[in-house]
Design goal:
Keywords: Coiled coil, Cytoplasm, DNA-binding. Its main location: cytoplasm. Homodimer. By secondary structure, the chain is α+β, with helices and mostly antiparallel strands. It has a domain at 26-97: Ybab, Chain: A (2-Layer Sandwich). 50% of the residues lie in helices and 16% in strands. The protein has helices at 4-24, 64-94, 106-109; strands at residues 29-34, 39-44, 49-54. A three-stranded antiparallel beta sheet has the order 1-2-3. β1 (29-34) and β2 (39-44) form a beta hairpin. The model has no long low-confidence stretch (mean pLDDT 85).
Length: 111
């Protein structure tokens, strides 16, 4: 027979672990680079840009458009990298909490 009370307890436990994991996301960080390292962007697990570093050789009026493109590319790479870390963190927080239901990935639901 289905144990609804046991399941509800597991759900509450999973919610607490998810909330705890979400609190740790600010401590995650990732970096993206473009132009062979001429531009580097750092982001955290809250998907916020923390810092942008760029080579001084790009700081000329002639390189303005290229600099913009490199910042966008590096930011996108950093965001892709942090998404992987977020999913891993959230998945580990919920692993084994609820029964394995095909197609239901709690880690990605809350990341």
């Amino acid at each position: 027979m289905f144990d609804i009370m046991g399941m509800m307890g597991k759900v509450k436990e999973a919610q607490a672990k998810i909330k705890e994991a979400q609190g740790r996301l600010v401590h995650l960080s990732a970096e993206g680079e473009a132009g062979a390292g001429l531009v580097r962007v750092f982001v955290n697990g809250e998907r916020k840009v923390l810092k942008i570093e760029m080579d001084e050789s790009l700081l000329t009026p002639n390189d303005r458009e290229m600099l913009s493109d490199l910042i966008v590319a590096a930011t996108n790479k950093a965001m892709e990298a942090i998404e992987i870390k977020i999913k891993t963190e959230m998945k580990s927080a919920t692993e084994g909490m609820l029964p394995n239901i095909p197609g239901m990935d709690l880690g990605s639901m809350f990341g």
